[in-house]
Protein: Serine/threonine protein kinase
Organism: Brevibacillus centrosporus
Amino acid sequence: MTMSFNQSPHIPSLPRQFQGKWNKKSYHVLRELGRGANGAVYLTTQGGVKRAVKVGAEGMDILMEVNVLKSVQQGRDSQVGPLLCDVDDLVIDGKPCTFYAMEYLEGEQLDRYIRQSGVDWVAVMIVQLLARLHVLHKHGWVFGDLKPENVMVTKSSKQVRLIDFGGVTKQGNAVRQFTEEYDRAYWHAGDRKAEISYDLFSAAVMMVRLAVDPQTWKSSHSETRHTVWLCDIIRKSDGLYPYRVPLLKAFHGKYSTAGEMRAEMLEILKDLTVAAPQKQKHIQKQKRTSGAGGMGISGLFVASLLLLAGTLYYAWFM
Ligand SMILES: Nc1ncnc2c1ncn2[C@@H]1O[C@H](COP(=O)(O)OP(=O)(O)OP(=O)(O)O)[C@@H](O)[C@H]1O
C-alpha cells in the first residue's frame, strides 16, 4: 500500500463522455484502470485511439506529474514513462478538475509479467529499469514509490516503462510517497531523503521480491525488517546469488548513479547468459559441497557483506 504525505480528500469519477475545456478534445471512457493516493486512471478513446486519462482532486499534484512526464520525454529519453498527449480541465459535478491524457501502455505490471514468464526475466527487467531511472535522475528527480506495480512491461516490445509519477520528488527533498516493502527507512537502512540511492535501494529490494516465492517474502512481514534478512535470501537463492555484489552495494548506498549499478548488473547478466549452463552448475555444485569450494563462496559472500556493511551495522547497533 502506498503511503502518501498529501492524501487527496476526494478523487472525482469521470463521466462516460467528456470534452476538455481548453483543447476541446473529446474522450469516451471505457473503464477505470485504477485509483490511488493521487487520482484515478481511466482507459478512454480519443479520436479512435486508446488513451489513459488521469484525473485528480488536486490540480497541483496532477500538474506536477505532467511536469515530470514532459521533462523526461524530451529528445531520445521518451522511454521512461508513457508519452503525454493532452493536459486540460473539465468540470465534474460543478467542481473544476485537471486531467491529463497519456499513451495507453498495453502490457503487464512487472510482478504479473514475472509470474507469467518466469524468474529468469527478473535481472533483464531490473537492468532495463535502471536505465529508465538513470534518465529520470539526470533530470533531477527521484521516483520515490518504486514497486513492481508501478512498472509496466509493454506487450509489443517487452520494454519496461514507469507509470504513476505521483511519488516523483525533486532530489534533496523528502520522498513524497512510498510503499513500506520497498522503503529504505522501513528496512532500517537510511532515511527518506529523495536521493538516487533511495531509488536504487528500492530497485534492489524489488529484485529480491520478484525472484523469491511469495511464501518466503511473506515471512519478512513477521520480523523486524533489516537488510540482513535480504542478504540471507540472496545467499540461499541460485537466481540472486550471482548478483550479490550489486545488490549489497545498492542496499548500502554505494552507487552514485543508476547507470553504474546497471553496468555492473549487465556484466553479470551477460556473463551468465554466455556461459549459462556451465557457470550455474558450477555455482550450484560449490554451494552444495560442504568442502573447501562451497565454504570459499560462502566465506567470500560473508566477507563482502561485512566489508560493505560494517560501518552501517556499527551505527545501527551502537
Ligand atoms: N499509461 C498507462 N497505460 C496503461 N495503464 C496505466 C497507465 N497509467 C496507469 N495505468 C494503470 O492504472 C493503474 C492506476 O494508475 P496509477 O498507479 O498511476 O494511479 P494512482 O491512482 O496514482 O495509484 P497509486 O495509489 O499507486 O499512487 C495502474 O496500476 C495501471 O494498471
